[in-house]
Amino acid sequence: MNTTLLTILIISLSIFAFYYAVYKIKSAQSLNTKHRPLHSYYGWYCLFWTIFPALLFFCLWTFCSSIWIDKTIINIITLSINEEGATNISLQLNAIKNAANGILTDQVPKEILSNYISLNQKSEFIRFIATLGIAIIGLFFLIRKINPDLRARNKIESILMVLMFIASFIAIIVTLGIVLSLLFETLKFFSDVSPFEFFFGTTWSPQIALREDQVAASGSFGAIPVFTGTLLITIIAMCVAIPIGLLAAIYLAEYASQRTRTIVKPLLEILAGIPTVVYGFFAALTVGPFIRNIGETFGLSIASESALAAGLVMGIMIIPFISSLSDDVISAVPNSLREGSYGLGATKYETIILVIFPAALPGIIGSILLATSRAIGETMIVVMAAGLTAKLTANPLESVTTVTVQIVTLLIGDHEFDSSKTMAAFALGLTLFIITLILNVIALKVVLKYREKYE
Amino acid sequence: MNRILSKSQNIENSTNKRHRKEKRFKSLCLGAVIVAILFLIILLSSLAYKGLSGFTKTTIQIPIYFNEEIIDPENTRDIAVINKASFRKIFKQSLLQKFPEAKDNRKMYRNISKIFSRGSTYLLKKMVLDDISLIGKTINVDLISSSTIDQLRKNNINIKVPESDRPVSDATLKIYDQLNTEGVIKKRLNFSFFKYGDSRNPEEAGILGALLGSMFTLIITLLLSFPIGVLTAIYLEEFAPKNKFTYFIEININNLAAVPSIVFGLLGLAIFLNFFGLPRSVPLTGGLVLTLMTLPTVIISSRASLKAVPPTIREAALGLGASKLQAVFNHVVPSAAPGMFTGTIIGMARALGETAPLLLMGMVAFIVEVPTSIFDPATVLPAQIYLWADSPERGFVEKTSAAIIVLVLFLIIMNSLAIWLRRKFEVRW
Amino acid sequence: MKKLIILCAIVFMFSFTSHARNQISVVGSSTVYPFSTVVAENFGRDTGMKTPKIESTGSGGGMKLFCAGLGVNHPDITNSSRRIKKSELEKCSKAGIEVVEIKVGYDGIVIANSKKSEKFNLSKRDIFLALAKDVPEGNAEGGKLIPNPNKTWKEVNSNLPDIKIEVLGPPPTSGTRDAFNELAIEGGCKTFPNLKAIKKEDKKKYKAICRAVREDGVYIEAGENDNLIVQKLAENKNALGVFGFSFLAENEDKIQGSNIDGNEPTFENIASKAYPVSRPLYFYIKNAHVDVIPGIREFVEAYTSDDAFGPDGYLSERGLIPMPDEEREFFRKSGQEMIILDKL
To answer: pLDDT at position B214, please?
Structure first.
């Protein structure tokens, strides 16, 4: 209740701050016609200083006071009922919190409970008053400062810069976090299985002892068949997705009427959002047997689990990655280029191939890379339609498996989770990461070489 | 003269050729669009074919006597008393009234009770708790049939195979036929599918818990990944110095999209659950992990669309005296907005369909209570689909498809919002 | 300024940490999941307490979460389709966790094929010869071990039909596969005296021979979605599939279970152990959480009542094979008194 009321109050205060600041600067300006600053910057500036300190205080207080209350209660608990033995303190605390919410467990002593409740109420009361107070102080302080000499735009810009910096900081931290976590676990794995076996072995069979009495069928961790399987399925998928996606993008951007485009583009995007379980069932129960039947009429013996079925269906799934993103990029090519080309007598086809395509190349390559990444990362379709058997083959009609599938099955299987062999998952992940990294670098180089930068 | 004629003829020929090429290319492009849409239609119609029956249920109307002596013998009308009463007895009594021949025949009684949902007694209890005046009356109640009977009515069970091989016995079948001729078996829309959370009985299972779970999770994801992703893209593209470090970061971010999603789950487990101690299985943490996963997609597509904005726009803005930030935020970003929205749509669509990272955050779970905030334990739609698809009970097959239909509808609604935004901002030069 | 905002973000994250829990949290095996959820749902309805939250994480992942520590952020119970390992128990006790073990019953593992083709009558020896990586030359006793050359069932045993061997089964990371290897394939292996003799000399070599499954595409690792295997079997009448008994029970109009050593995979046969391939299912309770997280005692009581895991209980309707009477009594008592598992 308290927080809802507080939120409403703060929001209304900030709206007031915005409009009052704009109003004030407008009236100040009419006196001094020399400056013509943009009004809304003052509003935003004022709004920021109303909300931000209050929010910061709110979070800080919630954080510190909850820790402080927990500490106090834990002290009381350890003083009074520790004789019972080594029951966990955090569990005791939980019992008290539950009791405060009305779920009575007999173990909770009354005085501690009432102590907890009163502490909590006090803390919330102070939080309410102080947050509101800080917001009001910020508001008044800022409104007094507002005059045309205040460089509000510069201030807002520096706030924006800070925000952007933080956002990039988060993105970079996430990136580094992923890479480092992969790296550490991989090192653990390589202390158990030699990197030589991993990179050059040709059998993949991660058999790990499930129980103590079991002498482990040692298991082999040669990653080559897993990677060739990934390559095979990805290539098949891209053979479906690149032509269809790219041609569809060109049609939407260059030929279709605005109306068709606004309808068709989102329709295609649905393809990317259909859950992969559906594609998995489609691949396993419709496409797989279909391919097998065709093969039988030609006298070929095909397993119902084949890389072809999985790859084809995966290709369908990633069409929108290419079609939508490429369409955006092609549409963003300046019209002057098109008109120039038409003016020289080129047909639409020639314009598209010779002018627009090179101009849009970086974006198109980007979309293809994104689609490839998605294909590599897909698990469900492969599990359902291509199986999990790691086989070293280039025949699309046989059953293969991919890196990500192996990672997922290793991590959610019934194995002991920390066994260093389960860490094979991370070694696979890191190797995949490095391979795609190299692909990315090559793609960037290609783009730099062939890109036509106009203007 | 002749030479000129042949030249113009040549040109005409080559023009014709060029135009034919143009036409071929256009129809090829159109073909690609049609093929893609055809796939969509096939997938959606097979879904509808399998899943639509999941939105109906079978009810059987029988008179139920809410015996006061069993429910509330002392006439207290106290909720605690009613809560403790044995509604199993009420149910049994009423069934025996309807089928007197099953009185001393335990096997037959079992066959009869198998026609009704396992949750029937709880339904009766709920009815009385909602309306105390029912006590002592006999009324006709539409009880939900068991999943097997529901499947039987939908012709999903092959009754031609020998009795031992099918889930319904001959005796049950006979009672079913008898009830059917009485006309008390009805087909209804299954509204409770949208009103309740998960259940292990297919006929009672609902989608609301997972739907709200997905919604809360995606709201968190959107609120975090869109601003962070777009701001990062702007910073890296427009402001960051171009040096080895930013190049390294750029390539790495591009590469993140290829990291299997479960790895993001592991990172989330380490950071959010183990380090920050956030609660398990709640949409808040789920949303945070999906943010990690969606960020690269948003960043990559936003950067691509920022790159596509012609430099003239920037230069013109700067030339008119705008600050660098004004040029970027007031002129470049609005032009790049459609691409940013597209990236976000695709990223969110992927987040909506993702289960692997959420598995590690505890969101692939059996949760009956419907979540009311981002701090309540919840599951998400794809996790619910995954769990249902893996259940042995036959009735979950159509529930799985029905849940998928709900997911796709959810996706369409989400996308149409974003598309409306995209259209608002699109510019062509 | 920058630092200030970063600080703010971190504080914001932390401000959600303090949080009470009044719901039982269960993690673990996807095989036990269908049974625990039924108990949980009935428990929630009967007692009016919050229905326990049950995650399906796999036995290994469940154990890891379970043994990570005490407190509200850690689960109270973990399901497992295998017994806890010594190393896991040690990790638990290092974290100060006392574990109570409850066995809930058995899960039968069946080999089935489509109703459209004829029912298989297999012996363990046939299974070994059809699926093992290396078999004795000429399928005869005393033969030299060679990579499995058998392509059709008829080559394995002249009484079996002349169709290609094609078996869809779980991957090596699955507990079902492990149990199948141990009970069916190793069981067949033991029928060869010379192979059995290796056990005494070199245990490791013996396991390597008797547990290894061929990887030439005859045995297809089909993932853990048993429903999909059932549907694939219905489509492909030559294939056989390996999966849990409950999926056979639900789909008996489409598929049929093969006899093993002359015994049909029926509920009664698995319960009496006449049908040889089944594995035990467990769950483990954190003793320190009992009476602190509301409902754990009652939940365990509901699970171990005859109404649930007894021979006529509602879990048997879902395909759980009940334990014999004394064993049930034993585990019911461990649940009531929370007898701590200190040694394996």
So the answer is: 93
CATH superfamily of domain region A197-450:
MetI-like (1.10.3720.10)
Residues B40 and C115: their CA atoms lie apart, in Å, by: 33
Scanning every residue of chain B, which has its alpha carbon at the shortest distance from the alpha carbon of C10? Answer: B276
What residues pair up with C121 in beta bridges, in sequence order? C259
Using CA atoms, how far residue C339 sits from A415, C96, C282, in Å, is 26, 16, 15
Which residue among B160, B189, B218 closes a domain?
B189
Flag whether B170 is in a domain.
Answer: yes
Note if the pTM is more than 0.90. no
B140 Cβ neighbours under 8 A, 6+ residues apart: B61, B62, B63, B64
- Residue-number span of the structural domain to which B379 is assigned: 208-425
Are residues B172 and B234 part of one domain? Answer: no
The count of residues in chain A is 455
Alpha-helical (H) ranges within B52-105 are 68-71, 79-84, 87-98
Q: Do the chains contact at C60 and A409, CB–CB below 8 Å?
A: no
In words, the CATH class of domain C22-107+279-337 is alpha beta
pLDDT of B218 > 90? The answer is yes
Subunit contact B366:C319, Cβ cutoff 8 A: no
In chain C, where the domains are located: 22-107+279-337, 108-278
Q: Which residue, among B232, B341, B384, B412, would best test binding to A if mutated, counting the most A CBs under 10 Å from its CB?
A: B232
Q: What are the distances in angstroms from CA A161 to CA A171, A230, A262?
A: 15, 42, 35
Residue A137 CB coordination number (10 Å): 14
Counted residue by residue, chain B has a size of 429
Q: Is C294 within 8 Å of chain A by CB?
A: yes
**Could you report the per-residue pLDDT of A150-209, keeping only the tens digit for each?**
777 888 888 888 888 888 888 888 888 888 888 888 888 888 778 888 888 777 777 655
Query: Residue C136 in 3-state DSSP?
Result: strand
SS3 state of residue C190: coil
pLDDT digits (tens, 9 = 90+) for B281-336: 899 999 999 999 899 889 988 988 888 788 888 899 999 988 888 899 888 888 88
Question: Rounded distance, CA B332 to CA B335, Å?
Answer: 5
ipTM score: 0.85
Picking from A390, A412, A213, the residue whose alpha carbon sits closest to that of residue C186 is A213
List chain B residues with CB under 8 Å of A63: none
Domain boundary among B134, B156, B189: B189
Query: Which CATH code is given to the segment(s) C108-278?
Result: 3.40.190.10
Tokens read off for A404: 């990500």
Domain with CATH 1.10.3720.10 in chain A: 197-450
Domain count along chain B: 2
Q: What are the φ and ψ backbone dihedral angles of C177, each rounded to 5 degrees?
A: -60, -45
Assigned domain for B377 exists: yes
Position B229 scores a pLDDT of 92
CATH number at residue B328: 1.10.3720.10
Judge residue B6's burial from the number of C-beta atoms within 10 Å of its C-beta, 0-12 exposed, 13-18 middle, 19 or more buried.
exposed
Distance CA C109, CA B250 (A): 50
Strand, coil or helix: B337: helix
The answer to whether C156 touches C130, Cβ cutoff 8 Å, is yes
Residues B133 and B226 in one domain: no
Please report where in the chains the tokens 């428990």 appear, as a residue: C43
Whether residue C173 and residue A414 make contact (CB cut-off 8 A), yes or no, is: yes
Of the residues A164, A230, A326, A353, the best mutation for testing chain B's interface (the one with the most B CB atoms within 10 Å of its CB) is A164
Q: In this complex, how many residue pairs, one in chain A and one in chain B, have their CB atoms less than 8 Å apart?
A: 277
Assigned token pair, B194: 């949208």
CA Rg, chain A, in Å?
31
Same fold for the pair C22-107+279-337 and C108-278: yes
| Same domain for B246 and B365 | yes
Q: Find, in chain A, the residue whose alpha carbon is nearest to that of C95.
A: A88
Whether residues B368 and B230 fall in one domain: yes
